[in-house]
Design brief:
- The protein is mostly beta strands and 195 residues long.
- It has two helices and eleven strands; from the N terminus they run ααβββββββββββ.
- It has helices at residues 18-21, 30-33; strands at residues 43-54, 57-61, 67-70, 81-93, 96-110, 119-120, 135-144, 147-150, 153-159, 170-182, 185-190.
- The strands form two sheets. A five-stranded mixed barrel has the order 1-2-3-5-4. A five-stranded mixed beta barrel has the order 7-8-9-11-10.
- The protein is globular and about 65 Å long.
- The N and C termini lie far apart (65 Å).
Length: 195
């Protein structure tokens, strides 16, 4: 009626730091940054494209990979252009992954079809964590009391400036929206009125 428990104990000091063990793994994709809490060394992301820019903030993406948010550090980047970046620091802001420090290593020129990186609400699950920081195009729904009601549920709509929010009790189309994440809740982040 009782299960035996077997355990081993030792007084020897063993050097085990999982962050140091992963230090030498090569990171070259944005999606790999989502697996990290912090970086031990800088990493280089090649051929990223700035798919959205508002003031000093931007969203970058690599072809066939994920997008990530650059917070308050993107003044030298231009929407629709490609770069190689050296990423120095990342962080989670209440669940939202951000690059908070980087250097431009190389300018690769204009990326003519950068809007092809935008995702369509019909083709993805906007409540899937892997779609965080993506730009969603032509998001349609009914706006009421801070939420956009969609066929698959409702999602919070947030804007730093309240005048950027849509009018209440209306069917709306948001041409492009930042799919954000804050305190265990997905949200649509409207950076400016035109969104």
């Amino acid at each position: 009626d009782h299960l035996p428990i077997i355990a081993k104990f030792s007084t020897e000091k063993v050097e085990r730091n999982p962050l140091k063990e992963q230090k030498n793994l090569e990171i070259n994709k944005i999606s790999q940054l989502y697996e990290k809490v912090k970086l031990q060394d800088s990493i280089e992301l090649k051929n990223i494209v700035v798919i959205y820019k508002n003031g000093n903030n931007a969203i970058i993406k690599q072809k066939d990979d994920r997008a990530i948010y650059l917070y308050n550090n993107a003044k030298d980047l231009k929407e629709g252009f490609s770069y190689d970046l050296e990423v120095l620091k990342i962080k989670d802001y209440f669940g939202l992954k951000e690059i908070i420090e980087f250097k431009i290593k190389k300018y690769n020129g204009k990326y003519l079809d950068y809007e092809s990186f935008y995702l369509s609400q019909e083709k993805i699950d906007i409540f899937n964590f892997k779609n965080q920081n993506e730009i969603i195009k032509n998001l349609k729904g009914y706006y009421k009391k801070g939420y956009l009601y969609l066929d698959k549920g409702k999602i919070r709509v947030y804007a730093l400036k309240k005048e950027n929010l849509p009018k209440e009790n209306k069917n709306i189309v948001i041409p492009k929206a930042h799919l954000s994440y804050y305190k265990d809740q997905f949200q649509i982040l409207l950076h400016e009125k035109i969104d």
